[in-house]
Amino acid sequence: MKTSNKFGIVATLFATIFLSNIWNPVYSQNFEFTSFTVIESIIPNGVGRSRILSSNEKRDYKEFTTTKSAEDNSRNKSDRDEIRVHNYEETKLLNFFNIAGIRFQNIAANDAIVNSKVTSMLNEGWGTCQYCGWS
Predict the structure, then answer these.
(1) Confidence of residue 26 (pLDDT cuts 50, 70, 90)
(2) Could you give phi then psi for residue 91, rounded to 5 degrees?
(3) Across the strands, what pairs with 53?
(4) Are 94 and 57 in contact (CB under 8 A)?
(5) Which of 20, 73, 131, 135 has the fewest CB neighbours in a 10 Å radius?
C-alpha cells in the first residue's frame, strides 16, 4: 500500500506540473526603463552647477556599441552628434557650497526636489527597482 501511494503522489505531482506548464502560456515581457541623473556640485564659493537631468529622447545603445577583441581592437567611430540628446529636462538644484562654506539648507532643499521628482514619477506609473534580476 505504501509503495502505490508514493507512486500515486509522484504521478499526480508530475501531471500537475506538466499540465500547468502546457496550459499556462509564457508571455514575453517588454519593459520600459527610465532614469535621471542628479549632479550636485561641490565647487566652493557657489560657482558650480547642480542639476537633475533626464532625457526626453530614446537611444538604442546597440547603434553606438562595438565589440573589442584581440584581433579587432579598432576605435568606436560612433558620431557624437547622433549620440547627443537635445531634448531633455533640466531641473535646477542649489549648490552645496557658497562663499561661507557648506549650506545644509541647500542640501535639504535639493533632497526635497529629488523626492518630488521621484514621487511624481511613481504617480505617473513608474516603479522603482534596486536590483532588476528577473528569472
Answers:
(1) low
(2) -110, 125
(3) 37, 90
(4) no
(5) 135
pLDDT in tens, 4-23: 454 545 555 455 555 544 55
Cβ count within 10 A of residue 9: 10
Rounded to an integer, what distance in angstroms lies between the CA atom of residue 86 and that of residue 57? 8
Distance CA 77, CA 103 (A): 43
> pLDDT tens across 51-64, in order?
999 999 999 999 99
81: cell is 552628434
Nearest to 34 by CA among 126, 132, 135: 126
1: confidence class by pLDDT, cuts 50, 70, 90: very low
Q: What is the DSSP string of the chain?
A: -HHHHHHHHHHHHHHHHHHHHHHSPPPP--------EEE----GGGTS-EEEEEESS---GGGG-----SS--PPP---HHHH---SEEEEEE--SEETTEE-HHHHHHHHHHHHHHHHHHHHTT----S-----
